Structure prediction request, 428 residues.
Amino acid sequence: MNFPEHDGLTGLLTRRAFNERAGSVMHSGEKGLAVVWFNLDNFKMFNKRFGFTRGDEILKEIALILGSTFSHDEYSNNLLARFSDDNFVILTDWASVEMNIDVVQEYLYSLHENVTLRLRAGIYFPSDGEDIRASCDRAKLACDAIRKNHSVSSCMFHDGMSRELALQQHILDHLDSAMMNEYITVLYQPIVRLSTGKICEAEALARWNDPERGFISPGEFIPTLEQYREIHKLDIYAIKKVCRDYRARTERGLPIVPVSVNLSRLDFELCDIIREVEMAVMMNNIPRGMMRIEITESINEEDTTVLNLGIEKFRAMGYQVWMDDFGSGYSSLNVLKDYNFDTIKFDMKFLHGFDVNKSEKAKYIISSNLEMARLMGMQALAEGVETEEQLEYLRSIGFGKAQGYYFGKPMKLDEMFSLKRGIETVSS
Ligand code: C2E
Ligand code: MG
Ligand code: MG
Prediction:
C-alpha cells in the first residue's frame, strides 16, 4: 500500500484505508454491522471563535473518545476513520452502537460545559455484502438529516432518505444533459414599482422540467448543486439564457426591463463569475445597467474577502448588486454591515401570516428594517406579496418595490410584457 493509512492529526484511518479494510470485512460476509457517520455541529464557527489550534485539539479529543468508547464492547474489529475535517466514520457491531453513541455524546458534553458541542451521528445497518461507499453515503445522509433538528443527536437511515439520495444523484448525473436539452429553462417574475403599480424589473428563476422525474423544484436542485460544488454551471447557463432571451426582444425592437439573476456565493470561488457575466452581456449587447446580481449570504462563512471583492467589482463595473432573502437567517444584520448592496430584498417570511390589523410586532420589525435600509442608502424590495392588504401596507410605509404572486408568478418573458398592469419600459 503506497498511500497514508493513518490521518496525521488523529492517527485514525484515512478514508481510503477505511474503505479498503471495511470493504473486505463487509465482503467477507460478516453480519450485524453498523456504519456510523459523525459530524460536529458548527465546527467552522468553532475554529473561527477559538482558533485552529483549539479546533485541532477537539478533533484529537473526539478521536480518543470514539476509540476508547467503541473499544469497550465485545466486538473487537471496530474500524475508525477521519474522512475529512470534522467527519468521522466507524464500522462497528450493530448491537451496542446506539449505547456507544450516547456515551460519546455525554462524555463530550461533560468535557465542554461552556460551549455547545454537538456531535451528530447518522447510523446505517448495511445488508450482507453491501458496498462500503454506498453505506457511508447513507450514514452521512442520516447525519445530515438532523443538521437543523437540535432536539436529537443521532438518526437512523430510512428509505425516504434513499429517495432523496436518488434524486440528488439524478440531479448530479443529468445536469449537463438537462441544460443541453433545455429541460432547464428560465422564467421571469415581475417586480413592481409601488408608486406607479407598473412592472419595473424582473427576476430570472431557473426551472427544471425533467422527462423522467417531472418538475424538480429549485429548492431541491439548488442546494444539491451547491453541496456538490456544481452550482456555477447552472448559474452560467441561466445567465446566458437570460441574455439570449433579452436579445431576442431587443432584436425585434420590443420593450425591455432590467433583469436580476441569482448567483450563489460559491460561484465566486468555483469560476470567474464576473468574466462569465461580462462575456454573456457583451456578446448580446446588453448594457450593464440592465442586469442586477442577487446574492444570498450567510454569516457562517469564514472568509468574506472573495465575495466582498466580487461584489465591489460588479458594482464598480456598473451592475447593481442586490441582497436576496434579507431576514431569512440570523445573519442578515451582520451581512449588511460587511457588504455594500444597492437593494435589499426583504424575505417573504416577513409577510408570512401577516394581518394588517393584528400583526403589530411584524409591522414594527418591517418598518424599522425599512428605515435602516433607507439610512444606509439602500433601496428596499418586499418579496412574497400575495394580497392587496399586504401591498397597501407596504406602500403606506414607503417600500419602493415589491414582488410576489399578487403581481404574477414566474412566467415566460414575452408573457410578462402582455400583463395588463403595464410596464415601465426601456426602449430597446
Ligand atoms: P429567491 O431568489 O428568493 O426567489 C423567490 C422565490 O419565491 C421563487 O421560488 C419564487 O417563485 C417564489 N415566490 C415569489 N413570489 C412568491 C409569493 O408571493 N409567494 C410564495 N409562496 N412564493 C413566491 P423558486 O423559483 O422556487 O426559487 C427558490 C430559490 O431558488 C430562489 O429564491 C433562489 O434562491 C434559488 N434560485 C432560483 N433560480 C436560481 C438560479 O438560477 N441560480 C441560483 N443560484 N439560485 C436560484
Ligand atoms: Mg432571488
Ligand atoms: Mg429571495
Q: What stands out?
A: The two ends are 66 Å apart (CA to CA). The chain has a mean pLDDT of 92.
